[in-house]
């Protein structure tokens, strides 16, 4: 069963009337959107496929948002946007490879790069020294985790400061929801495309949008979704981490007792 369909089954248990529902399941590595007919009239049906009006998905999720936040806020401290002593920009591919923890070939390229050569010619060698530390101590996943913690912090605060002492003593970087929203502009456009694709398939707009998945906890995502659907649909937040599992359990109970 598709994960957003399973999550929809959990939400359906709370409905006292039929509603055309869009389920947005924004997880760590993927985002899936499904439009379904849900409610008391459908609840006891064994075959729910006829009630699925549209499905769309993409391999973009919370990990990609972490990477973009790290690229925007952290990587300038490691040489992004800086230059060599002759005025040429520091090669951005090696910096992007460093932060791309969901891309194994990129990580291999980064750890095989000759960063000492780049550092020797850098106009700001201290920044490149941090990049060397990242490589030598194999800290790329820790850096990604730092960005994830910053994203989580922004769920309850507008701004924050991220300590990066594992790269350089006393090093820290400020971050904000505004920067996060700017950093993930491309990903939000992908999410919007998924929503639009599902509405075209269904031939209708939703009465309610049910949101699940850990990434959906971000106020930036909620604000984007509110602007997208406006006042035409209610937005309901479900169990962010166990909605799919709860839905599968509900289905299993209805089918097998």
Shape: elongated
- State mean pLDDT (0 to 100 scale): 92
Low-confidence stretches: none
Terminal Cα span: 18 Å
User: Per CATH, which architecture of the largest domain?
Assistant: 2-Layer Sandwich
Helix content: 40-55%
Number of H- or I-type helical stretches: 11
What is the name of the CATH topology of the largest domain? Nucleotidyltransferase, domain 5
Describe the structure.
The chain has about 260 residues and is α/β, with parallel strands linked by helices. It folds into two domains: about 5-60 and about 185-255, Nucleotidyltransferase, domain 5 (2-Layer Sandwich); about 65-175, no CATH class. Helix content is about 45%, strand content about 15%. The protein has eleven helices and seven strands. The protein has helices at about 5-10, 60-75, 90-100, 105-110, 115-120, 125-135, 140-155, 175-185, 185-200, 220-230, 245-255; strands spanning about 20-25, 30-40, 50-60, 160-165, 170-175, 210, 235. The strands form two sheets. A five-stranded mixed sheet has the order 3-2-1-6-7, sandwiched between helices. The chain has a two-stranded antiparallel sheet with strand order 4-5. The longest helix is centred in the C-terminal third of the chain and has 18 residues, at about 185-200. The protein starts with a helix and ends with a helix.
Question: How would you summarize this macromolecular structure in one to three sentences?
Answer:
This protein has 257 residues and is of the alpha/beta class. Helix content is 47%, strand content 16%.
